[in-house]
């Protein structure tokens, strides 16, 4: 159905006062202590500017000191850490070893969480360090709840590369790990055209089929210099980590270098609402320079559940708006395809139908 002036005005009103910011949501720097990144925070600042990127999440392992360094700037950096854990069933059988990202805007939030769980053996303070604990699946769920309670955003990174004691990949044991709604799962990983990205995409689709409400995320994770191969686009009120976190925690962002906005009535991407007599409205905006090529052809796909219900070619040079009358589906979501490269370049988070939602823990 054709988009109306009222559709566009409504979408614009819901995103009023917000601009698109594009950056990296998972990487590491050389910050001393237990950090294992290749470049300093000062390097990152200059590299981000050169790449026309607005932010980077620096998630150094086993410490919080990177968030206290003089070079730290919360208009450029988002903080947090990437721990690991061995996870066990209640009977003591080992499920496997995983990594997980805990993303925060302030170091005190992360410290409060580490102190809440004695398993981390956190030594406290700006120079404090912590270990990688052993958890039951249920205890890991409590960590996820605590991340949310302390104002953070929890992401399962690089799921296709997680190893398990039985040599089983994540795609066949996904339900063992997707134990909470409202968390992220990393799909674009290192680069949009990597095999890992394609595998992660299928894992996410599997989880959606299973009724999980996990938000798609992206991460570079090269541990070296900054790059623009796996970006995240966030419409935020200001260029500051706290503003970015506000929308990450709601699932209202895009995994990819294209600005996507979407609403179902007054509910934005990542949310849940009643689809009855609602209009789905989508706006596609800024293409980051890493994927913007006027000579390329691009396509917007609208997915309902596990099928594409609307497609149209779009331009990278001007905004595009689409509106549809909602039908009785479990969720709607959007993708942007670079047809010239035959490459999926952006994934918008779903809006879910309340009729089919239940909390899964």
């Amino acid at each position: 159905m054709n988009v109306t002036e009222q559709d566009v005005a409504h979408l614009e009103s819901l995103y009023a006062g917000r601009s698109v910011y594009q950056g990296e949501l998972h990487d590491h720097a050389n910050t001393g202590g237990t950090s294992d990144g290749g470049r300093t925070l000062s390097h990152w600042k200059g590299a981000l500017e050169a790449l026309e990127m607005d932010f980077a999440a620096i998630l150094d392992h086993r410490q919080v000191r990177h968030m206290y360094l003089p070079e730290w700037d919360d208009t450029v950096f988002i903080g947090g850490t990437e721990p690991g854990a061995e996870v066990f069933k209640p009977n003591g059988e080992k499920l496997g070893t995983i990594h997980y990202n805990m993303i925060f805007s302030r170091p005190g939030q992360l410290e409060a969480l580490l102190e809440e769980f004695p398993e981390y053996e956190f030594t406290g303070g700006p120079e404090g360090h912590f270990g990688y604990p052993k958890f039951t699946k249920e205890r890991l769920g409590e960590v996820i709840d605590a991340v949310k309670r302390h104002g953070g955003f929890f992401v399962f990174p690089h799921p296709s590369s997680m190893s398990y004691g039985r040599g089983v990949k994540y795609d066949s044991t996904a339900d063992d790990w997707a134990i909470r709604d409202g968390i992220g799962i990393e799909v674009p990983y290192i680069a949009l055209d990597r095999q890992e990205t394609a595998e992660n995409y299928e894992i996410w689709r599997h989880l959606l089929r299973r009724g999980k409400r996990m938000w798609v995320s992206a991460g570079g994770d090269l541990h070296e210099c900054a790059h623009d191969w796996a970006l995240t686009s966030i419409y935020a009120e200001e260029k500051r980590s706290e503003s970015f976190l506000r929308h990450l925690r709601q699932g209202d962002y895009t995994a990819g270098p294209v600005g996507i906005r979407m609403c179902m009535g007054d509910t934005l991407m990542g949310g849940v609402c009643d689809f009855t007599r609602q209009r789905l409205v989508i706006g596609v905006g800024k293409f980051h320079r890493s994927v913007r090529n006027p000579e390329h052809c691009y396509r917007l796909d609208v997915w309902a559940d596990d099928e594409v219900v609307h497609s149209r070619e779009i331009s990278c040079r001007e905004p595009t708006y689409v509106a549809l009358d909602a039908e009785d589906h479990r969720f709607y979501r959007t993708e942007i395809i670079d047809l010239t490269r035959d490459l999926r370049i952006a994934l918008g988070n779903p809006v879910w139908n309340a009729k089919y939602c239940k909390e899964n823990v």
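Residues 163-174 have pLDDT under 50 and may be disordered. The chain has seven helices and 22 strands.
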